[in-house]
Structure of Saccharopine dehydrogenase:
Amino acid sequence: MFAHCYKRQGGWKDVLSRFVEGNGLLYDLEFLNDESGRRVAAFGFYAGFTGSAVGIDAWCHQQLNAGEKYPVITPYPNEDVLIAETKEKLAKIGKLPKIMVMGAMGRCGSGAVSYARKAGIPEENIIKWDMAETAKGGPFQEIMDVDIFVNCIYLSSQIPPFVTQQQIDAERQLSVIVDVSCDTTNPFNPIPIYNVNTTFDNALLDIPSTNAKPLQLCSIDHLPTMLPRESSNQFSEDLLPTLLQLPTHTSAPVWTRAKKLFNEKVESMATTD
Ligand SMILES: NC(=O)c1ccc[n+]([C@@H]2O[C@H](COP(=O)([O-])OP(=O)(O)OC[C@H]3O[C@@H](n4cnc5c(N)ncnc54)[C@H](O)[C@@H]3O)[C@@H](O)[C@H]2O)c1
C-alpha cells in the first residue's frame, strides 16, 4: 500500500504502530526503489496530468461561471474526452492562461506540462521550474504572476515557502493553485496557506485573502483516479516485473531494501516526534 507515513505525515506513528502490533511488515509502494534509487512504479505522471487538467478547468470555471460552486469531478473514460472538454472551454473564453509547473522535470511535473500542451496552451505560457530556478529560495513573485500554479515537487527536506499569505493578500495574477505534491500535513509544506486535502466532491478550497481576486486551491491526493484507465495501465506495467519477484523476496533487492526501510522507520519512532 501507499501508507504515507514515512515522511512524518499526520498520524504516521499510528499507522506504523499497527504494523508492529499486528506483527506485520509494510512494503510501501512509494519506496520500492531500484538500485539507483529510482522508484520502480509511480502514479506521478497521471497525477500531474490530471492535476493540470483540474487547474485549467478551475480557471475556466472562474472565467465562465464566476462565483458559482465548482462542480463535482467524476472520472473520465479516457484522456481524449478530458482534453476535448478543456479545449472547448478555453475556446469559449477566447484567451489562454499562463501556467507554472514547479518540479517540471519530475514524473508529476512532466505530466502537468504534457496536459497543458495537449490542451493547446502555447509553450511560452507554460513556465517550467525545477531545482535550478528555486535555488535562490522562496517565496517567489513569479508564482503570483501566472494564472495557475501547479506544484509537483518531491519534498525531501525543509525549504523556504514558495508562497506566503502576505503575497496572496497583495496584487496578483494568480487565481488557482493545484498542489499535486500534497504535503498538506507535512511540517515543511512549501505552500503554508492551507492544511486540508480536498476531494472530487469538493475539489477547491477558497483561500481567504484581503484581496478581492479569488484564489482557489486543489489538494486532492488521489488525482490519478480521474483517469483510471491510463493510470492503472501505466502503473501495472511498471510494477509487474518487480511484483513477480515477490515470492523470492529474500533475494530480490527491491523488496529487501523496502523491508530494511520499514525497520528503520519503525526504529525511528522511538527517537522522533
Ligand atoms: N496528488 C496526487 O494524487 C499524487 C499522486 C502521485 C504523487 N503525488 C506526489 O507528487 C510528488 C512528486 O512526485 P514525483 O513522482 O513527480 O516525484 P519526482 O521525484 O519524479 O519529481 C519531483 C521533481 O521535483 C523537483 N524538486 C524537488 N524539490 C524541488 C524544489 N525545492 N524546487 C523545485 N523543484 C524541486 C525534483 O528535481 C524533481 O524534478 C510527491 O510528493 C508525490 O507523493 C501526488
